[in-house]
Amino acid sequence: HVSVVKDEIDLSDDGEIRHDEEVLSLPKGVEVYEIDGPFFFGVASKFDDIMHNMGDKPKIRIIRMRKVPFMDSTGLHNLENLFRMSQAEHIHMILSGVNEQVRRVLVKSGFDKKIGTENICSNINEAVAKAYEAIK
Question: Degrees (nearest 5) of the Cα angle 50, 27, 11?
């Protein structure tokens, strides 16, 4: 399952980190794409479809991966394609909620160096803070 958020994120059932606020507001021009489940071929294809059907292009694309337990080579390939597509469209990409297993795949493949280790965030609060910084 892949969902898109453009204005605010409901943190009430987040489980990602402890927080005081219930809602996290997104700056204008930032979109969050949440992936729920392993990032493999089926999810990656659905994700590509959503990207192509979106109207306005965001300035920053946060890929929220807190519910991605692992990533296979096809998922990695699709993430790399999304990153290249984002670069071509001048969209800054940030990964959020990346667990250790997925992070190891990103490091082993060298993707962490392509996207920049500073753009691989542990949680959504960190990713949104980075988006606020980048959008200034």
Answer: 75
Residue type present at position 23? V
- At 76, which CATH number? 3.30.750.24
72-101 per-position pLDDT tens digit: 888 898 889 889 888 988 999 999 999 999
Q: Rounded to the nearest 10 degrees, how much is the dihedral formed by the CA atoms of 125, 89, 117, 99?
A: 60
Domain span including residue 91: 2-135
Q: Is the pTM of this model over 0.70?
A: yes
In angstroms, the CA 122 to CA 134 distance is: 17
How many separate domains does the chain show? 1
- 80 is written with which tokens? 């790399």
SS3 call for 23? strand
Instruction: Map 23-82 to HEC letters.
Output: EEECCCCEEEEEEECCECHHHHHHHHHHHHHCCCCCCEEEEEEEECCCECHHHHHHHHHH
